[in-house]
Amino acid sequence: MAKYFDVHPDNPQPRLIGKVVDIVRNDGLIAYPTDSCFALGTQLGNKDGMERIRTIRELDDRHHFTLVCQNFAQLGQFVIINNAVFRAIKAATPGKYTFILPATKEVPRRLMHPKKKTVGVRIPDHVAAQALLAELGEPMLSSTLLLPGEEEPLTQGWQIKDELDHSLDAVIDSGDCGVEPTTVIDFSGSEPEIVRHGAGDTARFE
């Protein structure tokens, strides 16, 4: 059964954040809120956690997992960014965007796109998510909590606990979060490509 953590939206309780991070570090899988919508998250090197996400969402090998980072310095360790792309991404973070970029050697091969050797990265603008990432000290391997056959992600912590109680180790509820997935921009080619129109404004990338 998943543990349920009621985290304050403006001042996350360090004790609760610490407990959630302990679960992540012990190969747990969590559901947590972001500025776009709820996400599934596990530790970067947790192969079993990644497979559990695949099972819950019924994903194939071509799915781009996302490394959710605390800040730009952390993001820069895991993706290759030239100056023009750096400026574009820096201006849009933190925010409701996922960026697909060539991965560095820091990224485990199984997390990369099998052919393109790319990975998704994002920096959320959400207090509870930022508190988690700060305590964890590294990016969290994540994917939008969008269940198979559903048009929209789950948006309520209690609902997630109810539906995925036996598939998760923890659910963080921090009040309202976004209801729309991130906008996904692929910077791995010569021109930015909008892969998914979502919560982030695409005008700056068009």
Write up this protein.
Helix content is 26%, strand content 21%. It has six helices and ten strands, in the order βαββαβααββαβαβββ. It has helices spanning 14-25, 47-57, 72-75, 83-91, 127-136, 157-164, and strands spanning 3-6, 30-32, 39-43, 66-68, 97-102, 118-122, 140-144, 170-173, 183-186, 193-196. It is globular, with a radius of gyration of 16 Å. The model has no long low-confidence stretch (mean pLDDT 93).
Topology:
Layout lengths: L2 E4 L7 H12 L4 E3 L6 E5 L3 H11 L8 E3 L3 H4 L7 H9 L5 E6 L15 E5 L4 H10 L3 E5 L12 H8 L5 E4 L9 E4 L6 E4 L10
Sequence of secondary-structure elements: EHEEHEHHEEHEHEEE
Range of strand content: 15-25%
Q: Which structural class matches the secondary elements?
A: alpha/beta
Strand order of the largest sheet: 1-8-2-3-7-4-6-5-9-10
Main sheet makeup: 10 strands, mixed
Number of continuous helical runs:
6
Approximate shape:
globular
* Mean pLDDT across all amino acids: 93
Q: What is the CA-atom radius of gyration, in angstroms?
A: 16 Å
Please provide the count of β strands.
10
Sequence stretches where pLDDT stays below 50 over 5 or more residues: none
Distance between the termini: 45 Å
Helix content: 25-40%
EC number: 2.7.7.87
GO molecular function: L-threonylcarbamoyladenylate synthase
Keywords: Nucleotidyltransferase, Transferase
Enzyme class: transferase
